[in-house]
Amino acid sequence: MDMGHIVERISAIEISTPDPEPPDGMAPDAVWRVPVGVINIVPQAEIDLVRSVNDLHAESPGVLGLDAYLPEPAGEPLACPACQNSAELILQGRWGEPATVLCECGHAWPLAPSDESGSAEALKRAIWRSVEENGMPPAPPA
Questions:
Q1: How far, CA to CA in Å, does 76 sit from each of 41, 73, 110?
Q2: Rounded alpha-carbon distances, angstroms, from residue 46 to 6, 10, 51
Q3: Nearest-angstrom CA–CA distance, 30 and 118
Q4: Which regions of 56-117 does DSSP assign to beta strands (E)?
């Protein structure tokens, strides 16, 4: 099942920014568990259409009869296949690897099996946001 393009709704994460470097002091084999809440799924075609319209509006304001730019599509919340929960989701994984979604019911599944690079990028950005908000977590005891 192609879930389309996964769009995180974590404030201040810009999907269009360059691929981030790992945070300073991060252990390369660390497994992260980042609470992200709701994850919205938006088909890539919808995103492409809105961005094309907005690009045309930027180049030639008024041609399309728009007063403002169109907002990014909100999408549909990703729901746990086991319990249908779509809130309080957690992304888990290692830096640079695809993310796994964890539900509070205990079910786990791949974020985007058909887009492993997008899944890995989403996890990287969630890790960065977590580090910015909470600092680097302490190293586990040896």
A1: 5, 9, 17
A2: 12, 20, 9
A3: 20
A4: 76-77, 89-93, 100-102, 108-110
Close Cβ partners of 68 (under 8 Å, ≥ 6 residues apart): none
DSSP one-letter code for 29? T
43-86 residue pLDDT tens? 778 888 888 888 888 888 777 777 788 888 878 899 999 999 99
Position 3 pLDDT exceeds 70: no
Question: How much is the pTM?
Answer: 0.69
Q: How many helices (H) and strands (E) does the chain have?
A: 2, 7
Q: Is the pLDDT of residue 2 over 50?
A: no
Q: At residue 36, what is the residue type?
A: V
The terminus-to-terminus CA distance of the chain in angstroms comes to: 41
